[in-house]
UniProtKB/TrEMBL annotation:
Family matches, as Pfam families: Acetyltransf_1
PANTHER family, alphabetized: DIAMINE N-ACETYLTRANSFERASE (PTHR10545), GH14572P-RELATED (PTHR10545:SF29)
Family recorded in the similarity comment: Belongs to the acetyltransferase family.
Superkingdom classification of source: Bacteria
Record's protein name: L-amino acid N-acyltransferase YncA
Organism: Nonomuraea polychroma
Keyword Acyltransferase: yes
Amino acid sequence: MIRPATPADVPAILDMIHELAAYEKAAHEVRATEEDLHAALFGDRPAAFVHIAEQDGEAVGFTLWFLTFSTWRGVHGIYMEDLYVRPQHRGGGHGLALMGELAGICAERGYQRLEWSVLDWNEPSIGFYDKLGALRQDEWLKYRLTDEPLRRLAGRD
């Protein structure tokens, strides 16, 4: 079953974020707290959305996403920040169901893009996305500013 997250899901979401970060060899980078997630997902102006894959009343996976906008197409799209299914539940269709939920939201709302990134060494995920017919965007380089370089650029170092 796929459903929108509720405030009661925040602890499970944060646990799965930690599990995902460990899998991606970046556990030391997680700074999010339950309070951060609650504010971002359920505050006055939600910045992101989460859907939960649930089996027998247990959260076994999630996808966290937010809206984008394409200047070329003139409409919104979805950027999937994370898709995670707990290891013992992989292969059961949860990831496909989560992706299908986001594709359904795109179709229902007239969004024309569903985008995400995947680590270049994550062969199981790459294979999964390739089977869906997703197109790799090899011509684009991804950039990120965080921490000190971001503060410096903002003039707040």
